[in-house]
Design brief:
Length: 91
């Protein structure tokens, strides 16, 4: 399912090069992104995504993922990773 973007979304590759995303196409097994600077669509796993300099999770954000039934079109920003759960500590 294709999503046309109405907010600026940036894709950053492993070399830290930034591209402007124009379209996201989410499917059951693969998500591709189209960018202004590139002719073809590319697999989304090769990029990190940012809105206004903050990293976002396009898979958990209803604004980018049409399979999430949320009428507010929310953006899910990436959270600071916490330390792994210590199983040796009793509850």
């Amino acid at each position: 399912m294709k999503v046309n973007l109405n907010i600026p979304l940036a894709a950053v590759d492993k070399n830290k090069k930034e591209y402007a995303v124009t379209e996201i196409s989410m499917g059951g097994y693969r998500t591709t992104v189209s960018m202004i600077e590139k002719q073809e669509s590319y697999n989304s796993v090769d990029y990190k995504f940012y809105v206004e300099g903050k990293e976002v999770n396009i898979y958990k954000s209803s604004l980018f993922n049409p399979y999430i039934n949320d009428y507010e079109n929310l953006i899910c920003f990436e959270e600071v990773k916490e330390k792994p759960f210590d199983k040796s500590v009793p509850f």
